[in-house]
Specification:
The structure is a single chain. By secondary structure, the protein is an alpha/beta fold. The chain folds into two domains: 3-52; 58-309, Alpha-Beta Complex (2-enoyl-CoA Hydratase, Chain A, domain 1), CATH 3.90.226.10. Helix content is 49%, strand content 15%. The chain contains 14 helices and eight strands. Strands 1, 2, 3, 4, 5, 6, 7 and 8 form an eight-stranded mixed beta sheet that branches.
Length: 318
């Protein structure tokens, strides 16, 4: 265990000791002495430098209410954004953003899930959980972008596809499966960025890309830590254990070859400085797009196919 994790564990223990002393009152000489000793130890631990957040702490950062969402990145990274609405079959889905834009002067397509900040927006955006019409709108826009040779940028921050009765009746599973197949065939560059939560098939349905990136404090998993804990231990409060066991963080997933690179976040997280986060992302995406533009349409398809075929490999010890 590294010194950063040891410091984290000791700080948690110290916080509990302080809380206990405050409960019994800190007026006695002995209590005041103990509090001084504890505060001195806290100062020593702080001098060890910042500690790395664990898996559950990264999960909380990925869900931070002030974290930048797709429309925030549109504002900082793109110009001339023109939103596309509707799937031409059922209706529009505000949880899924699609639109043509310019990236450093080049015409591109932007697709991404969108959460809300206040109660009204959260309800309107369905808490960032798309319905099947959202996924059908996304693939309709992607096929249009392919027709005109425009690169595709997708931004993912969703707990997952909406599991409601109406969504299932309208073919939620079929819509996701269709997107997986069709995205794998698109003959234009596809750059995917997990900006917050990457939840299950609802995230993967717009994540079949030539390059897949994760923000430093984002997560990407088949189920939420709470859901996993409820299944494995029948206790959702063991979410921190589940988060560690599931290996859902960016450092874990880059080690498994699921993602290509980690985009660093400013300060204590992306929520602290939207502009700087967008600048960090711009550097990675612009360099990646320049690289992918050197490939032919068939090479893009072949590379994407090989990339996803290599995922989920494992070794068996005899």
């Amino acid at each position: 265990m590294d010194s950063g994790l040891k410091a984290d564990e000791e700080l948690e223990l110290i916080e509990r000791q302080i809380a206990q002393l405050e409960l019994v009152g800190g007026t006695s000489d002995e209590a005041r002495k103990q509090l001084r000793e504890i505060h001195d130890r806290v100062d020593e631990l702080r001098k060890q430098g910042p500690t790395k957040p664990n898996a559950w702490q990264r999960t909380e950062l990925a869900r931070h209410p002030n974290r930048p969402y797709t429309l925030d990145y549109v504002q900082h990274l793109f110009t001339d954004f023109s939103e596309i609405h509707g799937d031409r079959a059922y209706g529009d889905d505000p949880a899924m953003i699609c639109g043509m834009a310019r990236f450093h002067g080049e015409e591109v397509l932007v697709v991404g899930t969108q959460k809300g900040r206040d109660t009204k927006q959260k309800v309107y955006r369905n808490f960032g959980m798309p319905n099947p019409e959202g996924y059908r709108k996304a693939i309709r826009a992607m096929q249009m972008a392919e027709k005109f040779g425009r690169p595709i940028f997708t931004f993912i921050d969703t707990p997952g596809a909406y599991p409601g009765l109406g969504a299932e009746e309208r073919g939620q599973g079929e819509a996701i499966a269709y997107n997986l197949r069709e995205m794998s065939r698109l003959r234009v560059p596809i750059l995917v960025t997990v900006t917050g939560e990457g939840g299950s098939g609802g995230a993967l349905a717009i994540a079949v890309g030539n390059r897949v990136y994760m923000l430093e404090n984002s997560i990407y998993s088949v189920i939420s830590p709470e859901g996993c804990a409820s299944i494995m231990w029948r206790d959702a409060t063991k979410r921190n254990l589940a988060a560690e066991a599931m290996h859902i963080t960016a450092p874990d997933l880059i080690g498994f070859g699921i993602v290509d690179a980690i985009i660093p976040e400013p300060g204590d997280g992306a929520h602290t400085d939207h502009a700087q986060m967008a600048e960090n992302m711009d550097q990675v995406l612009s360099a990646s797009l320049a690289e992918l533009k050197q490939l032919s349409p068939q090479q893009l398809v072949d590379e994407r196919y090989e990339k996803f075929r290599k995922m989920a490999q494992f070794f068996r010890e005899v």
